[in-house]
């Protein structure tokens, strides 16, 4: 005898019998994928190169020496330093993984994701003050290690610095390319080959200054899409009261009711515990999505805090931003940047991530793990326009961090390999 579910999920009729949200079909055409990957890359290259040329003409920075190329003249002010920190620390994972932890653990996931990665940037601000005091003419962190501890320590740190840059860049490219493939059908191998070219062009043309200018633009676009998504979820389409009620409804279903909701035309269920958002959440107080008392969420938070220390303190791009900042602006820029960055994963995940569980969209655990929660909810709210906005936002996150990583590696090779050995 099949279970009768009295209180059906809000989107039940629309997604009845669906085993996953995208069903292997990309919501956008391949053309849009190429337009974003190649078009935006070219557009930013041209725009940033023009701004750098204008800076040369009007600000009198006629000759770009290697010093200026790698340090942007060491006179960057607070606001620009903060926006660079925001865009460097906004990876593809910041946008995609934060919503996945909201889908898994509820509201504690986004909090631990955001706070667990803000601590390091705030602490780096303290380090930036010492850096400006003790080594005002340094170019890379490895130079400081070399001056203090000599050759063997220098080579060790250089190895780890390159590892950090390679891991971060490959993670960005693969995460970004996989999402581009899921949203547009462009082959991920081709996407991961094409994405870096725009970055390489403007970074090699204008150095660190170009990276800073482009990062400012990327940050503006990321925040614009973020505000659009929050407005759509909590003001235009739903309200906080509705989302709250839907979340309470999601956890109220029993195992039998979940099996009845997620079943095919013959009534055969494809529901498994943990595969879809239905029923109480394991390890959460009262099984609720709206609690901070979550064992798995806390575990994730601890891992996140510990793991992110390495990706900030060993990444030359953060040292580079501190080196480029004015002595009076370095610490302020990092504090402001860290606080502004907190808003991105937290707001995106508490809007799109929680909405995915509130509406009980048929997002499978494998789709959530692939970072498809934000595009799925954006598609549900705004159709193809939503998916396109998430794609643009993602592309901004990839290229802004990518440009910082490429200039970091070029500095390490120029000052620590070529000049040193």
Could you walk me through the main structural features you see in this protein, from its secondary elements to its overall organization?
- The structure is a single chain.
- By secondary structure, the protein is mainly α.
- 73% of the residues lie in helices and 0% in strands.
- It contains 16 helices and no strands.
- It has helices at 30-58, 66-71, 78-89, 92-105, 108-134, 141-149, 151-184, 188-237, 240-252, 255-261, 295-313, 316-324, 330-358, 365-369, 373-382, 384-418.
- The longest helix has 50 residues, at 188-237.
Which key features would you list for this structure?
421 residues, mainly alpha, 16 helices, 73% helix
Largest sheet: none
Mean pLDDT level:
92
Shape: elongated
Structural class determined from secondary elements: mainly alpha
**Percent range of helical residues:** over 70%
- Number of helical stretches of at least 4 residues: 16
Q: What oligomerization state is this entry in? A: single chain
Order of helices and strands: HHHHHHHHHHHHHHHH
Q: Specify Rg, calculated over alpha carbons.
A: 23 Å
Beta-strand percent range: under 5%
Instruction: Report the uncertain regions.
Output: none
Number-wise, the strands total 0
- The N- and C-terminal alpha carbons lie at a distance of 77 Å
